[in-house]
Amino acid sequence: MSANEQAGGEAAERLVGAAADGEDLAVEAALRPKDLEEFIGQTRVREQLDLVLRAARARGGTADHVLLSGSPGLGKTTLSMIIAAEMGAPIRITSGPAIQHAGDLAAILSSLTEGEVLFLDEIHRMSRPAEEMLYMAMEDFRVDVVVGKGPGATAIPLELPPFTLVGATTRAGLLPPPLRDRFGFTGHMEFYEPPELERVVRRSAGLLGVEVTAEGAAEIAGRSRGTPRIANRLLRRVRDYAQVRSDGVVTRETATRALAVYEVDERGLDRLDRAVLNALLKLFGGGPVGLSTLSVAVGEERETVEEVAEPFLVREGLLARTPRGRVATPAAWHHLGLQPPRSSAGGGQDGLFGG
Fold first, then answer.
1. One pLDDT digit (tens) per residue for the chain, 355 residues
2. Residue 260's CB: how many other CB atoms inside 10 A?
3. Is the terminal CB of the chain with fewer CB neighbours within 10 Å at N or C?
4. Per the annotation, where are the binding residues?
5. CATH 3.40.50.300 occupies which residues in the chain?
């Protein structure tokens, strides 16, 4: 198993990890909104996408290709299904890692029906030969299938019915410009604000048959790291606690006690996040400290710390990445109830733990 796969596995196991596991996928299918009106949040993307789809329906044609970017758990898959529903078209779902050869893509494209929506998740991880085939398919609705090898190889043009490609990526910067430019609409998914997540929690609670108070929904939303998938996961765990140790109603007190059991604090930090901050503050005086040194201190893989824990800590303003290493911010000292060293405003002993 590669280091990246290990990091991904760690993310999937965390209660506040944005990666989806089997339970998440099953529940999301039941909770997924069916149209743009029902979709909560992402106001700008929804408005823009609504115009694109309405115009396509008025013309009686297929919608432009759509690229959705943003962190995991923000609703890219849900929007792809809504696009298909709004256009009255079937949807085919696959992912970049599943397409390792141009032939894999050709087989999928050649079986599409007119107007069908092809959702390609993690499009940035598609192989280069398949990517180059996709250029022509998106622009001309045609692919060249190569038959044979060597000097005798022949390219046979294959006409494709008009279709809509919806690509999803968590790393838009890794997409080559020729591919990115072939999308007619690009939407960036933002993290959700607490009031939006409260609406998500209340809606999901209604669909799951869970009684939740306004204060209980607010408590869960505030610990959900701006991500609906995490909000729904926390709601399910709080529901379990409420059913076993309380009267089944999700109140603020019940949510607080339940999430304390699952080690998710009031800002959404979990065990791994706090371990990173504790090591940075208590062992290295706030930094700067190198990533490798910090990873050893918390007993985790370097990639796990860098890709799983750090993005949220940086976004929350608790940790900063500098050329000399990781540095804790004053907010990190305050969050853990510690006093920063008087020798340095930013924390730490300069350069001592770099590398």
1. 444 444 444 444 677 766 666 666 666 777 888 889 999 989 999 999 999 999 999 999 899 999 999 988 899 999 999 999 999 999 999 999 998 888 888 889 989 999 999 999 999 998 888 888 888 889 889 887 766 566 666 767 788 999 999 999 988 888 888 889 999 999 999 999 999 999 999 999 999 899 999 999 999 999 999 999 999 999 999 999 999 988 889 999 999 999 999 989 888 898 888 898 989 998 888 879 898 888 998 888 888 888 888 888 898 899 998 888 899 999 989 998 888 877 544 444 444 444 4
2. 12
3. N
4. 31-32, 73, 76-78, 139-141, 182, 192, 229, 302, 321, 326
5. 17-188
CATH 1.10.8.60 fits 194-261, yes or no: yes
Which residue ranges are tagged as binding site for ATP? Answer: 31-32, 73, 76-78, 139-141, 182, 192, 229
Active site residue 59: no
pTM of the model: 0.81
Contact 354, 288 (CB under 8 A): yes
Examine the residue annotation and report whether 229 is marked as an active-site residue of this protein.
Answer: yes
Quote the tokens at residue 1.
Answer: 């198993």
Is 76 marked active-site? Answer: yes
- In the chain, where does the domain assigned CATH 1.10.8.60 lie? 194-261
The domain defined by 17-188 folds into Rossmann fold (3.40.50)
Domain 271-335 bears CATH identifier 1.10.10.10? yes
The single residue of 14, 24, 46, 121 carrying the catalytic annotation is 121
Contact 207, 164 (CB under 8 A): no
Segments of the chain assigned to CATH 1.10.10.10: 271-335
Residue 315 annotated as catalytic:
no
Look up 34 and say whether it is catalytic: no
The three-class DSSP label of residue 299 is: coil
